[in-house]
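To whoever is covering the structure queue this week,

Two jobs came back overnight. Logging them here so there's a record in the thread.

Job A:
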Amino acid sequence: MNPGNIAQTAQAIRTNVSKVIVGKEDIVDQLIIAILTSGHVLLEDVPGTGKTLLAKAVARSIDGEFKRIQFTPDLLPSDLTGIHFYNQKLAEFEFRPGPLFANIVLADEINRATPRTQSSLLESMEERQVSIDGTTHQLGRPFLVIATQNPVEQQGTFPLPEAQLDRFLFKLKMGYPTTEEGIAIMKRFMADSPLEQLAPVVGTAEIEDAKRHYTGVKATDELLGYMLAIVEATRKHPDAVLGASPRSSQALLRACQARAAIQGRDHVLPDDVKAMAVPVLAHRISLRSVQRMRADAAEHVVAGILSTVPVPADAPLVGRA
């Protein structure tokens, strides 16, 4: 599959999701990128902004299985992974898979679960498998976790530590719709939910094929140096206690390759780096306590770095083959 075919697959998903979701094209593209790169997404926003609807629409578009898990303090790791139980009729133990055995899993309010349960989910995200009673079970292909958390209500929560935040490819925010989008949403859902009529436009096999081929997108040494300079700048920033990890530079490269592929290009542009830097890097930076009081402080730090790190002089221009 070449980048042109990957772009067609992405456009089919994008168009199909737009039948349900009004606007949010950038968020949809970033979810497609996360699927292609085998990444996961932390979606931070207040309730009612369409997070569950978006996840369901993407799952239906790729003909994937969707599961939603409501995270609570009493949720156990086995509630996610599944259990072995004794079947009295068959007189033997059977495995009952948990909700992680799906293609797209919505981990709703992940910060309400205990660190033990959070760690169980994050281990599954990294390994794409679960081990229960000495037996390893493979998870779905593709496998995308969309974890949500409410940025306003913090009472009774267990914030994700930096080591676990680093496991997410993106941290995104849905945001409120504009007035025009709000009217369009009300009209669209006036009679019935369009999600009920949404049909798949690609299959999971096509997604897996695209995942194998997007890495063929090229990035010059100069652009690799540009990415690394941005990552290193987060470690030297005066407001940062902890900068972006080496894993983040790999994540930034993969995200840029996938973004180029879904746009039909076989090479990475500086614009890809600028578009992906904030959602890939901001949540991987730990700021000093004073700066943490501002919700979007990390995003401003990365945006400031982008404005100061020079773009390579011989970087390919938009549209150049």
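Job B:
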Amino acid sequence: MMIRRLAQAALAATLAFASPAQACTGIRLIAKDGGVVPGRTLEFGFDLKSDVVIIPKGVTISGSTPDGGKGIAYTTKYGAVGANGVGLPDIIDGVNDQGLYVGLFYFPGYGSYADATKENASRALAPYEYGNWLLGNFATVDEVKANFDKVVIVPVVLDAIKEAPPVHFVVHDRSGKSVVIEPVDKTLKIYDNPLGVLTNSPTFDWHMTNLRNYINLTATNVPPVDLSSVKLAQFGQGSGMHGLPGDFTPPSRLVRAVAFSQAAAPAPTAPEAVLQVFHILNNFDIPFGAVREAHEGVRNADYTLWTSVADLKNLKWYFKTYNDQSIRSVDLPAALAAAKGKIRFIKMDSKQPVQDVSKTLK
């Protein structure tokens, strides 16, 4: 709890006027060797100062309540590794040692949390603490489906954004199963996610219905058309994807996420699929200044802070950041062993290396 309070105070002091972004995009590929590889981008209107957080099994964790009290208390059954935000010991994107992945995505205008009461305090936790609970307690999507609503998510306010962050969650396991969990109307709803994608608002069922507007899209080029004596042919490659929405809104990004992930040729192995996911997610990278509020100017422009990919078969979590596009990895067994039973952190931010190859002539 002390770590949480200090992190929130520091964030509030430095980012009191910042506006959060709403532009995260998640996909999933399955390699020919059966490896399941989810990945996502993380966008925000200010730097979350994310680090890798390592949470071993056997650690006792307490949830938070809106009045500053303690909520649910549990001891982790499984160790987990992933990214945090603002110094909190909470994984907002990561994987556990059983190959279960959880990603937190912004859900503005739709996230609605349960009222905090004396009766539910022993089951309560903050929105950003839900990922820890899922990763610490469950090994498969089936287990998550059987238990996802055994806790209540309550509106614990983050001072920096002056609200309880509205979020929803995607969960994948190493069998390829996937679900989306959303706090709507003060209760948790769960949806099967056969395509393995997620963006932001509105609700997941709306996004799935919206896909019906794009059933014409195909990775195959469109053949020429004969109109009387005129033959019309494509100008070049990509005619099958003509009409694919290219803006940064959540509905458009989800359509693109489905189009690109479904069109991807299956990689032979999970490690090769990792690189493939990074390539696909490059399409969703938001440059600083491209998305911003009119009254805010460039100061609080949304941009891609980091991109992460998880190999659920080989238990590795990969990432690259805005300041360093080099891909780095964390091996779960090695990191959890090095943590020696305590919550530990690894710095994510670094400076992009640029290699001079002028004299490497062949």
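Note for Job B: The domain at 2-347 is CATH 3.60.60.10 (Penicillin V Acylase; Chain A).

Please reply-all if you pick these up so we don't duplicate work.
Q.
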